[in-house]
Specification:
By secondary structure, this protein is mostly beta strands. Helices cover 6% and strands 33% of the residues. The protein has three helices and 19 strands. It has a seven-stranded mixed barrel. The protein has a four-stranded antiparallel sheet with strand order 2-9-5-6, with no helix packed on it. The model has no long low-confidence stretch (mean pLDDT 90).
């Protein structure tokens, strides 16, 4: 099998301003809340934050508030992202009501490491689709996260991270355990790596919304290697190595 990159991913890495993941919003429906001992939040009653492209882990710049937030511009890091709420660490923001024209800008990198930060890998039976834009196929055996934790799209908890690139290759963060408890019995055949944003794995067509990577799963010689490709319901399986190499020629 062959490593396959989705159209969205290729466009983003090549710098397409439409699909590379730039997130910005300007609205009068945005407010800031100092959560005291709890998380601080930016709230949008227009529920436009996810549509605009904001996601967990983004570094966000903030402009336009004239009250308590007037001197706070960031960048500040998003902990969780929902349609109407971005949460931040306690002590990050001040109270400021909606009504002003406020602009939020996420500082997103275009590298593969940035695009897939806090992502998730799903492993299926059978053969991979013809392209990474095609709908997923086969039986879902594993939903690989960090330490088998529950990964929820839009949140950073338990998402997968890559390490630093070296010699034209990038691999899973060596400090992380990429694993899951078997969801079904079967033989692992291929994987799909998803970014942090919600992606149900269906067919992706124009305007190509989803960054994905498909590839082979095996005990050796594949992009994702496991000690065994035999998956058993309820038993923990681990992706031991995962490396992507860009050719020099």
């Amino acid at each position: 099998m062959t490593l396959r990159l989705s159209t969205n991913l290729r466009n983003r890495m090549l710098g397409d301003p439409v699909t590379r993941g730039i997130a910005t919003i300007t609205a009068t429906t945005i407010s800031a809340v100092d959560g005291g001992a709890g998380a601080d939040t930016i709230n949008d009653t227009g529920d436009g934050l996810l549509t605009a492209g904001f996601s967990a882990g983004d570094a966000v710049l903030i402009y336009g508030f004239t009250g308590g937030m007037a001197a706070i511009h960031g960048p500040v890091t998003v902990v969780t992202a929902e349609a109407g709420t971005l949460t931040f660490a306690t002590g990050t923001l001040a109270d400021d009501d909606a009504g002003e024209s406020v602009t939020l800008v996420a500082l997103k990198g275009g590298s593969l490491k940035d695009i897939f930060k806090d992502g998730v890998m799903e492993i299926y039976t059978g053969s991979q689709p013809a392209t990474a834009d095609a709908a997923k196929q086969g039986t879902l055996l594993l939903r690989i996260s960090r330490d088998s934790g529950t990964m929820v799209s839009g949140a950073v908890a338990n998402g997968l991270e890559f390490g630093l690139a070296s010699a034209g290759a990038i691999a899973k963060d060596s400090t992380e355990v990429w694993s899951d408890v078997g969801l079904a019995d079967g033989t692992a055949g291929w994987f799909r790596l998803y970014a942090n944003a919600t992606d149900a794995g269906g067919a992706d067509t124009t305007p190509f919304l989803y960054p994905r990577i498909d590839g082979a799963v095996a005990t050796s010689g594949a992009e994702a290697t496991m000690s065994s490709t035999t998956i058993t319901t309820g038993a923990t399986s681990t992706v031991d190595t995962f490396t992507i190499t860009f050719p020099g020629a």
